Hints:
The complex is a heterotrimer of chains A (148), B (563) and C (274).
Chain A: H1 2-10, H2 24-44, H3 52-72, H4 80-104, E1 117-118, E2 125-126, H5 133-139
Helix pairs in contact in A: 2-3
Chain B: H1 31-35, H2 40-68, H3 79-114, H4 123-145, H5 159-162, H6 167-194, H7 207-239, H8 252-286, H9 293-306, H10 322-350, H11 359-382, H12 384-390, H13 394-424, E1 426-427, H14 430-456, H15 471-501, E2 503-504, H16 546-549, H17 553-562
Antiparallel strand pairs in B: 1-2
Chain C: H1 35-70, H2 73-78, H3 84-109, H4 113-144, E1 161-162, E2 165-166, H5 175-179, E3 185-188, E4 194-197, H6 201-234, H7 244-269
Antiparallel strand pairs in C: 1-2, 3-4
Amino acid sequence: MATEVAHALAHPDDGAVHAHLSSAQFYWGIFGALVFLTFVTVMVSYFDFGSANIVIAMVVATAKAGLVATFFMHLRHDKLFNTLTFLAAFLFLAIFILLTYDDIGRRGEVDNDYGGTIKAQTGQVAPGGEPATSATADETNEKPPEAP
Amino acid sequence: MAAIDIPIPGAHSADAHGDPDANYLKASRGMGSWLTTLDHKRIGLMYLINVTLAFFAGGIFALLIRLELFSRGRTIMDAETYNRFFTLHGAIMVFLFIIPSVPAALGNFFLPIMIGAKDVAFPKLNLFSYYIYLLGAAVALTSIIMGSVDTGWTFYTPYSVQTQNSVISMTLGAFILGFSSILTGLNFLVTVHTMRAPGCTWSRMPLFVWGMYATALIQVLATPVLAITLLLLCAERFFGIGIFDPKLGGDPVLFQHFFWFYSHPAVYIMIVPGMAITSELIATFSRRAIFGQFAIAMSSISLAVLGFLVWGHHLFAAGMSEYATMAFSALTFLVAIPSGVKVFNWTATMYKGSIVWASPMLYAMAFIFLFTIGGLTGLFLGTLNVDIHLTDTYFVVAHFHYVMMGGTVIAFVGGLLYWWPKMTGKMHDEVKAKIGFVFVFIGFNTVFIPQFIMGSRGMPRRYYDYLPQFEIFHRISTVGSWILGAGLLLTGYTLLEALWRGKRAPRNPWGSAGYEWMTDSPPSLANFHETPVFTRGPYDYHLATPEELATGWDEVEQDGKKG
Amino acid sequence: MANVSKAVEVGKGHGEHGDHDHAHPSFLAHHFDTPAQQFNAAKLGMWVFIATEILMFGGLFCAYAIWRAVDPSIFDQAHHFLNKKMGAANTVVLLFSSLTAALAVRSAQVGKRKATSVYLIITILCACAFLVIKYFEYSHKIHLGLLPGHCFGHPGFSGAIQNGEEVGTCLRVHADQAAGTPQWVRAIDEDGHVQLLPPRTNMYFGLYFMMTGLHGLHVIIGMSILGWVLVRNMKGQFSKEYFTAVDLGALYWHLVDLVWIYLFPLLYLVGKPE
């Protein structure tokens, strides 16, 4: 009958849920690794590695997050698309952060064809760029338009 | 050989008494059965009623704005009120009408049918998202009653932080509406991935479903950022955390980045469904397989992805770093390509097809024409040096109305006319629909072409008063708004009239090969009488049997004679 | 037209389906064909929802990243006012609760109802512990006046040092003061040292409270979800064949843990140690 054909075409197996089962010991093992990594990251924070501080912290945090996602959240034994969904969120977040930084972190930096300008945050002279706005306005020869 | 492996139901509608195959409108009665329904078709209809009301409200504001702008100086309202009205027009149209419109109304109704499913993956979540929509609308209404906002629908800081108006309640309303959008998108994503009927492979999936899928991707990934943006704005107002306030070390342009990271993909939430409808209409009314079906499907996905990379083009004149402006301008040109693919493919589909001049087809062709204009003018705005002159002028206003109204609204109306017989089981009067179309098309162009012209001559947007040289353009535009309004009212009347006086519609009045036309008009509760098996594509006119393509008008007349 | 048998019963309710029992267990919703389809759909739905939560929190992480890149001095000093030990304790508590949540799912998968309940209860208790520690942290900051934006500092600022002794541990930054000359403020940190805080420290605490506050809200929501799952489990609604709600509830809880895994180092650990 068409019904059975439809079922057979759609679901070649019995259609029951077959989820992977890890042992309790395994979960405790992952927990142990997570605690160890937490210990590492706290200990490292008492030393100053300069700009590497945040890199180390993020690497350890990502390792911990990876363990939680892969094993506690079962991504290891789940459909690949779930992992892609999870990673896609981080990808778009990265796009957001990077392109926003491209603006806010690089204000006042322009290409070298023009003169220099001032960086808003620190007052340093930025490489390239137009002279500061007030100077440009003073140099202009344009008159304002006649009032109607 | 049957191309879709189910027996084609006859033209007589199912018996409502005790027959579980009764059509979904008659399967249960009473207001309560509608308010607690889990049927995606009923939920789609309820959304349709609400978005139409929202469109009407937003349209009233639009007409009042245009009336005010008919003459210089004060015409019917003062400047404060004018600011509130254009803010409300924008906020209502964007958040309450256009973003939910196609996905929540038509998508909810047709996506499961088009993949051969009985419902969406999470029917209770579907109903929940409808109630969240109502809640968000209620909160936004509260804001309006409490004096509303005058910040523009974009809520730019620092004004939105400092103004005394009810910004928090309006943003909370938008926040809640965002969740409705997210849940609808989530539902569609899971439905398409897990509930396609046998034979409905990705490459056979109708383009309307591809469009809904791409839209769902955007809804799910972009809307959460709107949520956090609005939360941050409320925190800024309430606690003054300083993130957007230069006095406290923040940056108001950061708000714009946050806001547009959502709102640019949001415009793709608005247009991709319109394109999805157009693909369906062009194929049916050219009686041909759509040209480059997979390319159109992939272009929808491309728009979804690329749309996330270009938000900075709304900030070109806001004071961004030059590196950012250059990067965003280049990416903006890139995002125009998938739209071009679609326009080319639709045109190629029509070439040497058997064109049927039904009202939905008129709207589809208008879509192609108007969207092309809107899209091309977007390229002018994406060019850095030109944008310096055109930004925040009426050129921008005309551009986005061409794509959003000339695009999405036109496609939405075309889709309603196309699918009305399927949804309601009644056929509307084609003559009135075509007259309405003429008014809409002429009215729309009359409103917005003058706006392109005056924008390029320097008329700024959101201005209450203006210089004398712009008055003639504003007047033409206002008169156009009346023509447009009349056309839309006539079309709305035509659809409503069909419910009472329309002929009973057959299963497939347009003779389409699409999957949704293989069900009853209106569909039964479970959509299909048994799980279908798809053995051909939805545009394969050469593979469809005559039985499948039969419009069924003969049987309707026979039944009518039987009485 | 031939009589067609229906693949599913169409009607109201999700009760027994007569002779379709073997193909349609009671936990299977009418619009799904098989339990596997329903389970996969539920899981995918949860992962899509998790993606939306990542993007929502991500907005706050973006704000953090931008301000940290633009003005690191805000972050270098202010983290001294956060108690690393309490933060680490909270981290371990949440990690342990993640373990018990995973064990709860495992117990449900093998049909051990009591064990599932026990693990769910422990998870909820850990969540309570997290909130208690958070309460102590928050109240300490409120006492010190380390609050976001306008609320930064107590009304009566002293902060001066009289006769070699600190008079109070209050801080003050006025919005209008910051507009003119940025004011460095004097404050006492966790270890009793006098700190000089850079002018935009109120921004740091704005981010701190928004990020931990939103996270705390999700902890409360997670507790409610797990509580509801616990009630359903005690009523015997789960089995070896159907444990989806436990799985999804645990996934939400793991997300809460994930967010904290990133919040902890970024707020507590990264700064200039002295």
